[in-house]
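Late entry, evening session. Most of the bench is empty. Finally got around to the prediction I had been postponing all week. Sequence below, unchanged from the version circulated by S.P.
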Amino acid sequence: MFVGHYGVSFAAKKCDPEIPLWILFVAVQLLDVAWAPFVLLGIEKVRIVPGITASNPLDLYYMPYTHSLVAALVWSGAAFALYALIARRKQPGGAALIVAAAVFSHWILDLAVHRPDLPLYDNAAKVGLGLWNFPAPAFALEALVLFGGMAVFFRTRGARPVPTLAFGLAMLAIQAYVFFGPPPSSDKAAAVTALVSYVLFAAVIRWIEGRPRSPLAAAGAYP
């Protein structure tokens, strides 16, 4: 899964509006944010195998440090500890738990779409329900989770529906290219492209969220 992960970010923002959206954007992709440099460093492995699934050409055959169930729990725990440490709040535990849950949601959503390449531990006992073998339902799930999360977020005071929805449509267009466009030229190209996308998406949502509010919005004329 790619842009669908961000639906969790938007829904989590509704749970605690004080958590910056860009942090939640990083949280839901943290496993992949770590995966990209691990691939570039040769710590984890991926091959480009067109046709290995109907909508994703990545053979993710070795990623125990980022995408095993045990690793996902460890990364989630680390995110909890880090956010609890840096959050400028008197009682950051609840917010840190939301951030940790956002991190772990990545593994849960990946379970639905990946072929059996997600290890439960180390590089063993691999699982995956394989929705990537059915491009239309897989793409529909990405859109449903993304825009479903946005619908929850739009009930948050201070949300900016128009630029956020426009951004969501742009994200979905990128997802369509990933699904139906040409495969990456190499494993390193896939990792670099993924990492740049995650940074860019977090930067854009930070810009959207941080834009000065109009007088009507500041006065509470609309949510």
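Two things to note before I forget:
The chain has one domain: 5-210.
DSSP finds nine helices and four strands in the chain.
Will write this up properly tomorrow.
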